[in-house]
Amino acid sequence: MRNPIHGGLLALMLIAGLSLAGVAQAQPSTTVEDKLATSYQLEVQGKYPEALAALSDIIPNGTGVAEFLALRSGWLLYLAERYGDALEAYQRAATLNPRSVEAHLGASLPLMAQYRWREAAQECRNALKIAPGNQTAAVRLVVLTTYLADWSQIAETARQVHAMYPTDLDALYWLARGLSESGQLNEARPYWRQLQALVPGHAEAKAWLEVPVS
């Protein structure tokens, strides 16, 4: 015959075990991987302050982790439109790793958002010093140069990028435009023709090619 006391204890133990299991499942995950996953999920939902907060108690265990957290924080602060704080975070990443291309490219974003074109362009140049063939830095530098309204400089910068990336349409366009606006239309014509061939019906290329040869 089964001992009713033992049976009751067993039932209580099973109930307690299930309850504890339920509590354990309800506890939020605390690993670094889980915190990062939570941060990314919140970013996708557009909850940038919350995504940033998810990183707040991660303790860096090395320079690489500290750099990553600085870059990640800079990005989230930029998305949250806290541009001054974002710039500081990217600068912190650059201090941790002076060879970080991402830190300089990242720093250009809040500077652009604040219309600080010259400083943003310098960050792109800093990135190119580290990685001369970086297409993102090169093309962004061309675009930033256009805001400085120096057409000769625009043409020269675009020429350098076009030499590295002949099929990049932005570089090709700004090379043709920079030459045209700085009074070098004859030199610009081959580039306008190339752009027109790659983008049939390009209105601006057509208009410049119709300007009489001087």
Core attributes:
214 residues, 12 helices, 0% strand, mainly alpha, disordered N terminus, Serine Threonine Protein Phosphatase 5, Tetratricopeptide repeat, 2 domains
CATH homology superfamily name of the largest domain: Tetratricopeptide repeat domain
Helix-strand string: HHHHHHHHHHHH
* Radius of gyration from CA coordinates: 28 Å
Low-confidence stretches: 1-27
The helicity comes to: over 70%
Helix tally equals 12
Structural notes for this entry:
- The protein has two domains: 32-147, Serine Threonine Protein Phosphatase 5, Tetratricopeptide repeat (Alpha Horseshoe), CATH 1.25.40.10; 149-214, Serine Threonine Protein Phosphatase 5, Tetratricopeptide repeat (Alpha Horseshoe), CATH 1.25.40.10.
- The longest helix has 23 residues, at 4-26.
- The chain contains twelve helices and no strands.
- The protein is elongated and about 70 Å long.
- The protein is mainly alpha-helical and 214 residues long.
- Helix 11 packs antiparallel against helix 12.
- Residues 1-27 have low confidence and may be disordered.
